[in-house]
Amino acid sequence: MDVEAVVNATSSAARDAAGAWARAGAETSASSAPGSAGGENGPVARNCAAGTTGFGAVAAGVAEAGEQLRCMFGVDTVYGVAGRSNASDHPAGKALDFMATRASGDRLAEYATANMKRLGISYVIYRQRINTGGGWESMEDRGGATANHMDHVHISFE
Protein backbone atom coordinates (compact mmCIF):
# COMPACT_ATOMS: atom_id res chain seq x y z
CA MET A 1 0.00 0.00 0.00
CA ASP A 2 1.27 3.45 -0.86
CA VAL A 3 0.87 5.05 2.58
CA GLU A 4 1.63 8.55 1.38
CA ALA A 5 -0.97 8.25 -1.39
CA VAL A 6 -3.62 7.06 1.10
CA VAL A 7 -2.84 9.86 3.55
CA ASN A 8 -2.75 12.47 0.79
CA ALA A 9 -5.94 11.15 -0.79
CA THR A 10 -7.88 11.07 2.47
CA SER A 11 -6.51 14.43 3.59
CA SER A 12 -7.40 15.92 0.22
CA ALA A 13 -10.89 14.41 0.34
CA ALA A 14 -11.44 15.75 3.85
CA ARG A 15 -10.19 19.21 2.84
CA ASP A 16 -12.43 19.16 -0.24
CA ALA A 17 -15.40 18.07 1.85
CA ALA A 18 -14.64 20.66 4.55
CA GLY A 19 -14.49 23.37 1.90
CA ALA A 20 -17.82 22.23 0.49
CA TRP A 21 -19.36 22.24 3.97
CA ALA A 22 -18.06 25.73 4.64
CA ARG A 23 -19.33 26.98 1.27
CA ALA A 24 -22.70 25.39 1.92
CA GLY A 25 -22.93 27.08 5.30
CA ALA A 26 -22.18 23.92 7.31
CA GLU A 27 -25.56 22.47 8.23
CA THR A 28 -26.66 23.57 11.67
CA SER A 29 -29.46 21.14 12.47
CA ALA A 30 -28.96 18.75 15.37
CA SER A 31 -28.53 15.82 12.99
CA SER A 32 -25.68 17.45 11.12
CA ALA A 33 -24.01 19.70 13.66
CA PRO A 34 -20.29 19.20 14.20
CA GLY A 35 -19.72 16.31 16.56
CA SER A 36 -23.06 14.67 15.78
CA ALA A 37 -23.50 11.16 14.44
CA GLY A 38 -23.92 12.47 10.92
CA GLY A 39 -26.27 14.54 8.82
CA GLU A 40 -28.70 13.16 6.30
CA ASN A 41 -27.06 14.80 3.28
CA GLY A 42 -23.44 13.70 3.35
CA PRO A 43 -20.20 13.93 5.30
CA VAL A 44 -20.24 16.00 8.46
CA ALA A 45 -17.71 18.67 9.44
CA ARG A 46 -16.77 17.88 13.04
CA ASN A 47 -14.13 18.11 15.68
CA CYS A 48 -11.99 15.01 15.19
CA ALA A 49 -10.11 15.12 18.46
CA ALA A 50 -11.07 11.53 19.36
CA GLY A 51 -8.01 10.16 17.57
CA THR A 52 -7.26 6.58 16.70
CA THR A 53 -6.89 4.92 20.12
CA GLY A 54 -9.60 2.32 19.44
CA PHE A 55 -7.85 1.25 16.25
CA GLY A 56 -5.03 -0.61 18.00
CA ALA A 57 -1.76 -1.27 16.18
CA VAL A 58 -3.17 -1.11 12.67
CA ALA A 59 -0.94 -1.23 9.59
CA ALA A 60 0.74 1.86 8.17
CA GLY A 61 -1.77 4.11 6.44
CA VAL A 62 -4.83 2.37 7.89
CA ALA A 63 -5.02 4.67 10.94
CA GLU A 64 -4.74 7.79 8.81
CA ALA A 65 -7.36 6.63 6.30
CA GLY A 66 -9.61 5.44 9.12
CA GLU A 67 -9.38 8.71 11.00
CA GLN A 68 -10.27 10.68 7.88
CA LEU A 69 -13.28 8.45 7.17
CA ARG A 70 -14.36 8.58 10.82
CA CYS A 71 -14.24 12.36 10.76
CA MET A 72 -15.90 12.74 7.36
CA PHE A 73 -18.89 10.59 8.31
CA GLY A 74 -19.29 11.39 12.00
CA VAL A 75 -18.54 7.91 13.32
CA ASP A 76 -17.55 8.01 16.98
CA THR A 77 -16.64 4.34 17.50
CA VAL A 78 -14.14 2.51 15.30
CA TYR A 79 -12.47 -0.83 16.08
CA GLY A 80 -9.27 -2.06 14.50
CA VAL A 81 -6.92 -4.84 15.59
CA ALA A 82 -8.77 -7.71 17.21
CA GLY A 83 -8.59 -11.48 17.28
CA ARG A 84 -11.14 -13.29 15.18
CA SER A 85 -12.10 -16.95 14.94
CA ASN A 86 -12.90 -16.59 11.25
CA ALA A 87 -10.88 -15.29 8.32
CA SER A 88 -10.41 -11.57 8.86
CA ASP A 89 -7.96 -8.75 8.20
CA HIS A 90 -8.37 -7.46 11.78
CA PRO A 91 -5.55 -9.48 13.42
CA ALA A 92 -3.10 -8.22 10.75
CA GLY A 93 -4.13 -4.60 11.41
CA LYS A 94 -5.55 -4.17 7.91
CA ALA A 95 -9.24 -3.69 8.76
CA LEU A 96 -11.47 -1.24 10.61
CA ASP A 97 -15.07 -1.57 11.80
CA PHE A 98 -17.02 1.71 11.81
CA MET A 99 -19.98 1.39 14.20
CA ALA A 100 -22.52 3.62 12.47
CA THR A 101 -26.17 4.54 12.24
CA ARG A 102 -27.94 3.32 9.12
CA ALA A 103 -27.73 6.77 7.49
CA SER A 104 -24.04 7.29 8.30
CA GLY A 105 -23.20 3.71 7.39
CA ASP A 106 -24.94 4.00 4.03
CA ARG A 107 -22.98 7.15 3.17
CA LEU A 108 -19.67 5.76 4.45
CA ALA A 109 -20.07 2.49 2.53
CA GLU A 110 -21.02 4.37 -0.65
CA TYR A 111 -18.02 6.71 -0.35
CA ALA A 112 -15.61 3.88 0.49
CA THR A 113 -16.69 1.76 -2.49
CA ALA A 114 -16.55 4.74 -4.85
CA ASN A 115 -12.99 5.53 -3.69
CA MET A 116 -11.52 2.05 -3.16
CA LYS A 117 -8.48 2.42 -5.36
CA ARG A 118 -7.63 5.92 -4.16
CA LEU A 119 -7.96 4.96 -0.48
CA GLY A 120 -6.20 1.59 -0.76
CA ILE A 121 -9.34 -0.35 0.17
CA SER A 122 -9.49 -4.01 -0.82
CA TYR A 123 -13.12 -4.63 0.15
CA VAL A 124 -16.09 -3.26 2.10
CA ILE A 125 -18.69 -5.33 3.99
CA TYR A 126 -21.98 -3.73 5.06
CA ARG A 127 -25.53 -4.98 5.62
CA GLN A 128 -24.73 -8.60 4.72
CA ARG A 129 -23.15 -7.58 1.42
CA ILE A 130 -19.55 -7.39 0.23
CA ASN A 131 -18.03 -5.13 -2.41
CA THR A 132 -14.57 -5.96 -3.75
CA GLY A 133 -14.76 -3.33 -6.47
CA GLY A 134 -17.22 -4.96 -8.85
CA GLY A 135 -20.46 -4.06 -7.07
CA TRP A 136 -22.33 -5.40 -4.07
CA GLU A 137 -22.78 -9.16 -3.62
CA SER A 138 -24.96 -10.85 -1.00
CA MET A 139 -23.27 -12.78 1.80
CA GLU A 140 -24.43 -15.80 3.77
CA ASP A 141 -26.27 -15.28 7.05
CA ARG A 142 -23.70 -15.30 9.84
CA GLY A 143 -26.31 -15.41 12.58
CA GLY A 144 -26.68 -11.94 14.07
CA ALA A 145 -26.73 -8.20 13.42
CA THR A 146 -23.06 -7.61 14.17
CA ALA A 147 -21.84 -10.78 12.44
CA ASN A 148 -23.88 -9.79 9.38
CA HIS A 149 -22.44 -6.25 9.48
CA MET A 150 -25.86 -4.66 9.91
CA ASP A 151 -24.63 -2.26 12.61
CA HIS A 152 -21.22 -1.39 11.21
CA VAL A 153 -19.19 -0.90 8.04
CA HIS A 154 -16.16 -3.18 7.76
CA ILE A 155 -13.37 -1.79 5.58
CA SER A 156 -10.31 -3.87 4.73
CA PHE A 157 -7.21 -2.19 3.35
CA GLU A 158 -4.57 -3.53 0.95
Automatic annotation (TrEMBL):
Taxonomic lineage: Bacteria, Bacillati, Actinomycetota, Actinomycetes, Pseudonocardiales
Protein's name according to its UniProt entry: ARB-07466-like C-terminal domain-containing protein
Limits of the ARB-07466-like C-terminal domain: 57-150
InterPro entries: ARB_07466-like_C
Source organism per UniProt: Pseudonocardia halophobica
